[in-house]
Amino acid sequence: MHNVTDNSPNTSIDSTVLDNEPSIRIRDLDFLYGENQVLHNVDLDIFPKEIMAFIGPSGCGKSTLLRCLNRMNDLVDGARIGNGTIEIQGIDLHDKSVDVIELRKKVGMVFQKSNPFPKSIYQNVAYGLQIQGIKSKRVIDEKVEESLRKSALWDEVKDRLNENAYGLSGGQQQRLCIARTLAVEPEIILMDEPCSALDPVATGRVEELILGLKEEYTIVVVTHNMQQAGRISDRTAFFYLGKLIECDQTKKIFLNPNKQQTEDYISGKFG
Amino acid sequence: MLVDTKQVTELMSDHKNKEVNPFSPKLSREKVQENLMFGLFRGMTYFVLFCAAFLFWDILSKGANKIFEGDGLINWEFLTEHPQTLHVIGEGDEEIKLSSSNYYKLKDEKILAKWNLFAKSPGFTSNLSDLDNEMIELQKEWTEKSLQFTNAEFLKKERDKIYNKFAFWSDLLTDINASARDFEVEPQEIPGLVSEFILGHFEKERSRLPLVETKIILFRAQQYSNIEEPSLNTLKEIEKAYNAFLIEIPETYNQAIKDFGNEVSLTYEDFTLLRGPKEFGRFAEALVAYETIRRAFLDIETKNWNSIKELIIPFKQAMSVSLPSRDYAYSGGGIFPAIIGTLLLVLGAMTIAIILGVFCAIFLAEYGKPGKFLSLIRLAILNLAGVPSIIYGLFGFGLFVIFLDWNVSLLAGWFTLAFMVLPIVITASEESLRSIPQGFREGSLALGATKWIMIKTSVLPFAMPGILTSSILGVARAAGETAPIMFTAAYAKRSELPWEGLEHWTDFFFQGVMALPYHIYVVSAKIPQNEYTSDMQYGTAFVFLFLVIGVASLSMLLRNRLRKKYRW
What we know:
By secondary structure, chain A is α/β, with parallel strands linked by helices. Chain A has ten helices and ten strands. Chain A has helices at residues 62-68, 100-106, 121-130, 137-150, 154-157, 170-183, 200-213, 226-232, 250-255, 260-266; strands at residues 24-33, 36-46, 51-55, 79-88, 91-92, 107-110, 188-192, 218-222, 235-240, 243-249. In chain A, helix 3 packs across helix 4 (137-150) and helix 6 runs parallel beside helix 7. Chain A is globular and about 55 Å long. The termini of chain A are far apart. The model of chain A is unreliable at 1-17 (pLDDT under 50). Chain B is mostly helical. Chain B is built from 22 helices and three strands. A three-stranded antiparallel sheet of chain B has the order 2-1-3. In chain B, a hairpin with a 6-residue loop joins strand 1 (83-89) and strand 2 (96-99). The longest helix of chain B has 39 residues, at 29-67. The two termini of chain B are 78 Å apart. The model of chain B is unreliable at 210-214 and 264-280 (pLDDT under 50). Chains A and B meet through helix 2 and helix 6 of A and helix 17 and helix 18 of B.
């Protein structure tokens, strides 16, 4: 068995989840926006088919780290890695041989604010396939249905696939965004506060969906909602001021954290 | 007493109320100010509204005179005809207004009627045969004369005349210094002066003897190098050559007479007067040619000529109809070519401006990294928006018309107008690209789209309504400006429509057109004003207004459809 503990001091291992080689391996990561360093020396492993939750107060760098994982930060002017590496399946993301387009197909992303395109529901899901040059209507149709089924949306929208996606409710829109991501067959799905704009019922449905997706995908969720982290994640990482304070089994983090800062945050003393 | 008590109670309660109610009105400085400012804002707004309403009312009411003139509901002639001179016949109640084409049609009809009347008159046949006989006589006489003509007086007289000239020129060249004193020039300039004299003489000869024009030109061309810097020797050579040339002249005349004889008999044989004035026109042409040749013979007179002239008089009279009219330039006909021209200019210019502008805006909004370079570009674009339109006109004239040698053409106008509206289009397109939620971009990129695919599929389509809105502003400006097109694309008057008379399809782009704003300028400022020009101006303005409204509503319709399709 691979011994991770040596390399990642903040992680204690539960063998049932972590039998494998880590899917994402982050080492000594420093990240800067211009001169402003937002991540300090982060070490973290994320394993296949687990749900990892990032928690922490606003501005602690959890979203930045998430966006590093499929290089969405490339879009931000002056954003750069100061030091350290991110490896996915053993390959350094910033290696010259990595095509960011291919990377983003493998590492899908769902955003905080649901952002379906102002097109029909069908076209939204088909978009990722169409831009890959897939023309066959049959293939696309199948994939659209499959993705919508996986995201538990099929029964609700199957009769109005050609209606504008903005006619859906907020929760449905977010699930549509997940379906859109699933259609391009990613292995890892990043979710940046996917439920922050949803009411409790819609949140419940999305959470249910995320739990279901765990069977097939590695999922990283950033959330402000600690109950949500508790409900859905296998492991939780707590960030504070750009540093990874603690990362452990979710149960342990919530019931018996190692660090005082974690406990203070969990118990609501700040944040 | 009871009343008093009541009053007192009321007063008291009043007093009490005043004391109790803290919200009772008080007149304060702020209140006066408030009312004053409110009145001012309202007054200004109403004033602006009034001005706008007056402007529209003025154009619409005066323009309606022209648009709804005449029998039908709408004066279609004004919308479908070329601009023409207005001919007004008669006075008062019997006044008839006709555009040029109708005026000449009427005149032709009158001539035909008069001619037909004359052709049926009893004197007609005898007149005709008299003329016939005289013509045959004349032809015979001239043919005889031409046989004797080779060495006639003509030659001698011409030689005498030219001899004096040549003597004068030789004198000038013999004593250059004396000549220089006489003419108050430097001695070395004398040959050039003589050269000018010689050329001037030949120029005069050319207009005096139209029939031998080509011969003279030929002669000059042969001697040209010698004439440039004449010396005494070259002068002699020229004199010799000219003498030889003079001998050829009678030959030329003889040939012309023979040709003419053939021509007249041909025309005359074919000639059946009942066919009408057009046929007679050919006959008249022949007569004119006859007279020209007679003049070429100078004072050599023929005995028949005067009798022929008299015989022609009834025929000429039968063809002349006087239809007196008062003529007003540009006040008749319509503005069809100007409507077409403006439409073409606007469509072309907007196509170019939108393509250039959108590409530029995409670069600025999506690719450009914020920094000095980008701010510099933005500053330049903002400044461009403030440049007066006449400067664009000069720029287009210098670059497209002169330097690229496109002449006054649609293409030059398109590019000039496009550059003028470009700042509007770029600024608004950039604005509208930036207003697309960042989420669409991220969503697209996160699904593995390249930047261009992202722009193509999830930014540009949604930004299109905004871009079209900006283009509506551009349309109004491009259609309305006079200055940029007056040097580059607009003609004051052009009879052909843009698709008429093209030799090759590319010629379409290299032709000038009429345009509504320039037409308004021409009828307002470039022609003598009269009672009809005002109608023309306001009629054109009326149509122009509705054309711009029409084009703008079309783009608005398109925009609204797109908006409905992509709403979020």
